[in-house]
Amino acid sequence: MAEPGKRTAIYDDLYTIPENMTGEIIDGELIVTPKPSTRHSNVAFTLSGELAPPYRFGRGGGPGGWIILPEHEIMLGAHLLVPDFSGWRKQRFPGVPKENWISVPPDWVCEILSPGTMRLDRIRKMPVYARHKVSYLWLIDPLVKSLEVFGLESGRWVLLTTFAENDKVRAEPFQEVEIELGNLWLD
Prior knowledge:
Layout: E1 21-26, E2 29-34, H1 38-57, E3 66-70, E4 74-76, E5 79-81, E6 85-89, E7 108-112, H2 118-131, E8 136-141, E9 146-153, E10 156-164, E11 168-169, E12 179-180
Parallel strand pairs: 7-8
Antiparallel strand pairs: 1-2, 3-6, 4-5, 6-7, 8-9, 9-10, 11-12
C-alpha cells in the first residue's frame, strides 16, 4: 500500500512521467524506471523473434495458440504492471481492449532483469503475478546470462529450472521450440 500520508497513484499519473521512462503502479505507488538498456533491448528483440512466430501463428507446423505482447500494460486489481513480455493462450486472450491495458491476467510473463529493476521485478512484481494466478514466469538476466523458469504451484512460485550461457532451452510453457540462449547475449 502507499505510505501513510502519501496519495495513492492513479492511471492518469502515468501521463506525467517523461517519455523516456516507464511507469507502473504497485501497491498504490507510482514507480518510474528508465527505458531498457542495449543488453535488455537485444534480449527482448531476439526472444521475440524466437517465440512470437511459432507460438502466435504456428507457421511451418509450429505449435501456435498464443498471443504474446511486448511491454504491454497489465491491470491486475489495483496494480498496473508492464512486464517485458506477456503471453495469453488464445482462448483466454480478451481481445483488443478499449483501454491501454489488459485486465485478464496473462498465462506467462517474462521480466528481463537489469541492475535498476531487479529488486522491483523479484520483490514487488513476482508476488503480484502469483496473487493473480499467472501460471509461468521467466526471469532473464543479461549480465549473468541466465534464464530462470518459475511455475505457480499452490499460489507460490517454484523454480522449475535454470539455464545459462549457451544452453539450448526448451522451457515451459514453450517447450515445443528450442531457444539457443547464447543468441540472447551481447558479448
